[in-house]
Model the fold of this input.
Amino acid sequence: MKLLISPSPHVHSGDSIEKNMYGVLIALIPAFICSVVFFGWGAIIVTLTSVVACLLFEYLIQKFLLHQTPTIFDGSALITGVLLAFNVPSNLPIWIIVIGALVAIGIGKMSFGGLGCNIFNPALVGRVFLLISFPVQMTTWPLAQGFAGSYVDAETGATPLALLKEAVKSGQSVSNVLTADSFIGYKNMLLGNMSGSLGEVAALALLVGLVYMLIRKIITWHIPVSIFATVILFAGILHLCNPEQYVGPIYHLLTGGMMLGAIFMATDYVTSPMTKKGMLIYGAGIGILTVIIRTFGAYPEGMSFAILIMNAFTPLINRYCKPVRFA
Amino acid sequence: MLKTFRIGGVHPPENKLSAGEKIQVLPVPEQVIIPLSQHIGAPATPVVQKGDQVKAGQLIAQAGGFVSANIHSSVSGTVVAIDNVTDAAGLSKPAITIKVEGDEWMPEIDRSAKIEHNITLSKEEIVKAIAAAGIVGMGGATFPTQVKLTPPPGSKAEVLIINGVECEPYLTADHRIMLERAEEIIVGVRILMKAIGVDRAVIGIENNKPDAIRRLQKIATKETLGIEICPLKLKYPQGGEKQLIQATINRAVPSGALPIAVGAVVQNVGTALAVYEAVIKRKPLIERVVTVTGKSVKHPGNYLCRIGTPISKLIEAAGGMPEDTAKVIGGGPMMGRTMVNIDSPILKGTSGVLLINEQEAVRRPMRNCIRCSKCVSVCPMGLEPYLLMKLSQFNLLERMEEEKVMDCIECGSCSFTCPSDRPLLDYIRLGKGRTGAMIRNRKK
Done:
């Protein structure tokens, strides 16, 4: 009888890349349903285009440039596709999405060597590339009108963060913005009934995704909680210093890419730190940077930049943040 | 809240198939092979010659140094060879082969079932009797017991910890002896307490063995004997010495130090039973309980076997080798070693023989590290397996030392968990070996 020889352990938990990646995708479903409800066909068209383009580019690059066996169904390119779509307006023209997908997969991921090797979150690389290259299309937000809205020439409106930025710039006080007719109210913000990138609006649905991922132990609480806590603390201090100049933390939490970023983008395995302590520092960095960019920067939204900047710090954090040793 | 160790740990499926099977006596085979090195340390030196008649329990090889153990014949018969034989791993190792004739035991051994509770020997006499009986750690580490009972100068034992955790999946030998030999074990624990001069002992048992916990609690109470039964929350690798000490008495053994640094001496329940037999019944370590198990095994069970019995005999007793056997493992699935030679003998440290079928033996191909940090979360020593593997691949030994690779207990939690099926422990073990050699060379 032939016997196999191998070093221990001889059993495996059965966990796999696919289980984790598809777990994340399942966690994204509630947010996707909300975006379809709010943005109708636009949400479906943009998401489908982005996913198909990401899978296709990953396949082509692996097969013809890297001469590897394509692994497009490991779920990672799918997530990149969905997250890229979630980070753009729901009326973005198809050709721009395809360019975004090429940059995300080609430059953001495959140029570093593929899954697990990239420094920056691929979807955010694609998103920021599009934001800088196509500033008009990337900041024209359709109103949340459901299937009544049109994909080709949608009625558009400003996001709550852009409204706030404009108002504060023109010398109005925060309380004016919050009492104006254009203010949609915190309840709508929580549900996602507002202008914005198609997947980022539904705060509640994204939180449901977070709970799912925590239960399945796909991610730990450290990164999202540390981001939220820092934002509450930092924005809260600013707000207390001058409530007319700086908006309160709840406005920060419920608007822009805060939820999507903290729950799904910052927690990307590959580009976030390896130790719990490191994750807390990384999350705190993202929280502070986001509030700084939103409050003092030129852009109304700073989540993507904050995450990308902290991605760059991840190797450094890994070098110096060691886990709690046994003794 | 049940106690457990603080950081890391995994929950492999328990698969304790033979937990309900009573210990059966395996018939004495026609021939036994007794290797001279069944323990950590120097091999024993033979004191018999080819052609000699020996009895069960007779000394056939003497400890070959301070860290070494005596070896006794487990059967009566004729020494037919003192020569190199192929061991379980396929290596050639010196052993004494005895052809079995009858079953005559040394006359001083008390083979009656009567349980004796009085300990008449003094502290020194106990240690001497344990050394004479060739007792080693029966959990698998096989460290000579008398050495552990002689603390180095300057250190003092405060508490005896008995390892009844049996955290390896599949294995049930310790579970069975705790159920069937509980009284003897408690006497053994008392003997060990006397030997190291402590008045407190803690027996750590995971709560997947509630019957064993109840059984021992009934016999031993903290008030009467100073023996505390400590139920532990199920988590692997709780049987690791440092993990068990933390779980039971909440003290952390520093990096590179021995348990005695925090006043603890750890012994396995199987060792406690062997100590009872050696001290009270004057019976050397010549038999032990071995679990034979596996998903395809017809009759998984627990057998009392003479040391030196071929493993193939044990497999036969459990219903023969299943058709689809892919691996035969000495020990459990997390830390056990695969065998090439199933005619190799059962040793003092063989706690189980596990047959893994083809389906379970498949190792999926390694994929890219996705940096999920699950290996870091599960490491019970607080190391970073992904990093140690990378450092090992690049042979950066100084960095590995910095990252505390020598603390690795090789429990396999990292490889078990990895979603990318990376052979983390394989590389870490390799690097740990090289780093250890580098450190030893530096000291010279």
